[in-house]
Amino acid sequence: MQYLFKTRYEDDVRFLAKSGEKIRVGLVVLFMLAAPLMLQDYYLAELGLLLVYAIAGIGLMILTGFTGQVSFGHAAFLGIGAYSHSILMARAVPFSLSILITILIAGLVGMIIGRSASKMHGFYLAIATLAFAILIETVFGEWKSLTGGHAGLAVPALKVFGVTLAKVWQQYYVDLVMAGIVIWGASNLFRAPTGRAFIAVRDSELSARSLGVNVEWVKIQAFGVSAAITALAGALLAHQLTFLAPDVFGVLESLKLLLMIVVGGLGSILGAVFGAIFVSVLPVAISFLKDVLPPSIGQKAGLEPLLFGTIIVLFIVFEPLGIYGRWLKLRFFFETFPYYRKASFVRQKSYLKTERMR
Amino acid sequence: MLPMSDVIHLAITGIAQGCAYGLIALGFVLIYKATEVVNFAHGEFMMLGAFAVLTFSEVLGWGFWPAFGLGCLSIGAVGYLVDAQIMRRIIGQSQASVFILTVAFGFIFRSLAGMIFGWNTQSLDTPFDGRIALGGGIEIGTDRLAIVGATVVLVGALYLFFARTRVGIAMQAASQNQLAAFYMGIPVKRLISFTWAIGAMIAAAAGALLAPVTQVDTTIGFLGIKALSGAIIGGFGSIPGALLGCLLIGLIEPFADYYVPSIKGVSAYVVMLLVLFIRPEGLISQTYQKKA
User: Fold this and answer.
1) What's the rounded Cα separation, in Å, for the pair A277 and B94?
2) Which of A21, A84, A111, A119 is the most buried (most CB within 10 A)?
3) Chain B environment of A316 (Cβ under 8 Å)
4) Which DSSP category does B141 fall into?
5) Which helix (H) or strand (E) holds A153?
6) A160 by DSSP, 3-state: which?
7) Using a CB-CB distance cutoff of 8 angstroms, which residues of chain B are in contact with residue A302?
8) Domain that holds residue B67
């Protein structure tokens, strides 16, 4: 066990308190920076996509993992980001301005949803966001003059400050910088009163309210921030896809985002990143599985959603903290070796938390 | 403007469709009232029910009515097992995980059904294939009448079950206060699983009765989401509210599709979002917010 001796006030607010964390994070950052030197273009593009999904995952994590508001329709914000960014770029708006406007638009839409969300509770919100996502998908399909409808919309080339970035490694660095900013910003958010208020609302609305937190405003803020970050991911995703169609941002995509944060581990920023890694590796694993399984099962349509569903069920039932929870346990095992006990992480007996009042 | 006979025709089909939504919503509300879990996989129970009845009656050739009974019972067993084996383990976890879990179940059921029964649309022969003339050039299929009739019968039966029988009253008690009910010697766990079974059975019945209208394939489970929006419009806490909301959705949908074709198929969600924006707790409210 490593004890932290805090000798200055700054020690309380440091991101990476332990020396081991510094080394690990440093290694990851080094690897990410050096990746274009080591990887082929295909893998580099996959890594860029992973970063984009990590950003989207953090966006949803802020809302669902930290504020406790379930959104079944986050692909809508991804879509809003992708479409508004591409439309603005096509109208010759510079990249930085276009990203900013996109973030503002999505943030505003998010806050409007958040305003009505602050009045709903529990599953009303889940189903309302689902309906919102279905509607947005319909809007993308029907507003042909702006979005090109189901025929699709070509995304303009990535051009930052007048320099066209067409190579894979150039796009990768754009994604990396954005992901870095988002991860840093999100970790910062949860050291600040705003983020702490988010967590308080998740844990108990009643106690948050009695401590003077404005619950409605917190929910509006959380939706706004979450939508803005997800839209940023959408804008970057547009450059990866190079061609947008409404059904890319359907219900399945929303579920993929949810799968990411549930499997990664609800309630931690690292969890969103783990989840992004997981959904990037999953298709590879599935195609591998298809070869291994007997063809009567492996070649059938519908294997992928089946595995998706099964993995979610297994994680929620057996490891509710997700990959992040596994990681915590593993770390704890090594740090306290040989004193690790299973009981350290056994869940306490829990009861149905009712939302009804009589 | 539509001629009057078309208006009446649309209204009648709308009411029948609304009743179908109502049947599915019944299961949602029952399970919600018992466990505060919203079963997003409920539409899939309906889909499985339709497939089960199809298998028993067409593939095995046992006739519609025995197949109908067997199909409902087997889906009821599935519902019971889902609760007893899985949903019970995650009591106390956050609502988010519970929703996601039921959605995942929907995925599993849908792909399993596709793998076992095939992804193609199939049709199920039911005894309801005639048409009845109502006069004035309006006629209505008996399949629609059967749905309306089944809704009325099932709602009546459920009312009697919950108001008169010992099991029904015990279920009400368990849904009001699990701990107090347990102290009174009520087997709360078994009753909750039983509630899941009832909900799943009603959904299966709805699936089989809807088969002539929607046909049978793996995507009919999405009707469940529309039923859910109907239930939310009416107010989720009460069965009459949910039924009313579903009827409204059923009535609005054909007219909305006619007048605003660009939102064809999603008008139910538009209505739901509007209602939620104005009255977040539904038209007939039964839940009370915790007061600070």
Assistant:
1) 24
2) A84
3) 90, 93, 97, 100-101, 104
4) E
5) strand A153-154
6) strand
7) 110-112, 114-115, 119
8) 4-132+141-278
